Amino acid sequence: MSDLGSQGDYTFAYLDEQTKRMIRRAILKGIAIPGYQVPFASREMPMPYGWGTGGVQVTAACLTPEDRLKVIDQGADDTTNAVSIRRFFQRTAGVAVTEATTEATVIQTRHRIPETPLREGQVLVYQVPIPEPLRFLEPRETETRKMHELEEYGLMHVKLYEDIARHGQIATSYAYPVKIEGRYVMDPSPIPKFDNPKLSGNPAIQLFGAGREQRIYALPPWTEAVSLDFEDHPFTASKAPHDCDLCGARDSYLDEVITDDAGRRMFVCSDTDFCAGRRAKGHTGRLGDPA
Amino acid sequence: MTLHTPEFSQKIHGPDQPLLKVEGLTKRYGSRIGCADVSFDLYPGEVLGIVGESGSGKSTLLSCLAGHQRADLGRIAYDGRDVLAMSETDRRRLSRTDWAYVHQNPRDGLRMGVSAGGNVGERLMAVGARHYGQIRGKAVDWLGRVEIAADRVDDRPSAFSGGMQQRLQIARNLVTSPRLVFMDEPTGGLDVSVQARLLDLLRGLVRDLGLSVIIVTHDLAVVRLLAHRLMVMKSGRVVEQGLTDQVLDDPQHAYTQLLVSSVLQV
To answer: Best mutation site among B125, B151, B152 for testing chain A: the one with the most A CBs within 10 Å?
Structure first.
């Protein structure tokens, strides 16, 4: 094997070349069949399951020495998960890193799609805990595979029916199921349903890696993803009805932050890069200092 | 005798094509026989009872007919189509539209974590219903038809009594207006007064909807009330078949005579 870019004791991007080859084959198959869950031989990674082992393996298989990597966790570049995965690839691949969505070529994400629209040539890698959208309705793997094979997706609507019967509206607010190009129903990973419209017709390549469940699936650029709903209860991309308190943005997804024990709170953009960029341009919100 | 009512005669003599035609159906478990060489015709609107002791192969036969198990030999034609040669997609579509299967234990046939309305609506959604209000309306309508109060529509089946669960299972199965219903001991595990009400309900539904039913049971009272024709099985083979009252009142085969005489007279 070539030792191109090997860093000390590690192969480039940690995984050995044969493993990366195996993962790339799974990714290519996933891209060829949008929304289909491709099994792959997930490896032990030097981090616990649930911390993004699937996403890390997909990123490792996609990275080239010329890439510029951005890692976000719930939209933020500076949380533990994002910082440690970014540092992992800095050490094992020596690639350049960035916090700017526009500058990144590969973005690994947990639970968000960046607010800044992606462009062609970018790769968005999602960390997925449970890839099977039917899992909580049908525990048998043999049965869910059969249901995907035969396009028996009525059960997915039973879940939405239960939501409306119990809560008066579709209460599923994250990991909201989508149908890809009229064929496979897919779990978009636990992104808020606010982000669902961005899945569809996205110019970037979207890859989904589930390490513990050993599945990879993908959306090639410009793929149609339709959020499931009822005719009389249509899908709505919801967010907190506020503006960002730091940058004043009205159309970005917000985190609610409790600021004291007297019940005061603030709403801030969950996408830190987006928020910082707006403040740098002079936008301010209710509590923000002009940058 | 209920045998010669005009509606019954019309049902068996009216349509001349059988809805289900079974020829030489055989299922083996290794060297043991599940059921062997079973043949019969079922006409639209007809109720066929299958009786026999435990292990006589009646449940094996039913699960082969419903496609839960694959028969080793024989032919099953439904409405002129060869069921065993069908693709799995077609067969599963058939089993959630034209067919229905009522399990002995309602827990096997219901989704216990899903509300009664969701249970009834599942088959509708599986065949493409996407309007919440209409699905719910139909669910409430069907709960009424099986005598479950409309205000229980959002309760889970685990909050229901055994008899209600069984009635819910029946509603869930009949909501897509199937033509052929398989029932595996639908009254098993229920106490006698609940059984009687359930039988009454079933008899009404079968008559009103013109269903064809294959009902497996070891309870001769159930077949006496529901079934037009009867098949008696022993050791995987059919030993006697005929009109229900004829078989029960004038059993020919030694095993049938034993079976009929074993019923406790109160």
So the answer is: B125
In chain A, what is the straight-line distance between the N-terminal and C-terminal CA atoms, in Å? Answer: 50
Q: Is position A62 annotated as part of the catalytic site? A: no
Q: What is the pTM of this model?
A: 0.84
Can you read off the two tokens belonging to residue A275?
């928020």
The 10s digit of each residue's pLDDT in A131-145 is 999 998 888 999 999
With CA atoms as reference, report the closest residue to B99 among B179, B4, B41, B8.
B179
Confidence of residue B9 (pLDDT cuts 50, 70, 90): very low
Query: Rounded distance, CA B179 to CA B81, Å?
Result: 15
Q: What angle do CA A19, A21, A26 make, to 5 degrees?
A: 95
What does the alpha-carbon distance between residue A168 and residue B24 come to, in Å, rounded to a whole number? 53
Chain A, 143 to 162: residues with Cβ < 8 Å from chain B are 150, 152, 154-155, 157-158, 161-162
- Cα B194 to Cα B146: distance, rounded to the nearest angstrom: 13
Residue B143: CA count within 13 A, CB half-sphere = 25
How many Å is the maximal CA-CA distance in chain B? Answer: 57
**Residue A64: CA atoms inside 13 Å, Cβ hemisphere, count?**
6
Q: Which is it for the CA torsion B198, B199, B200, B205, positive or negative?
A: positive
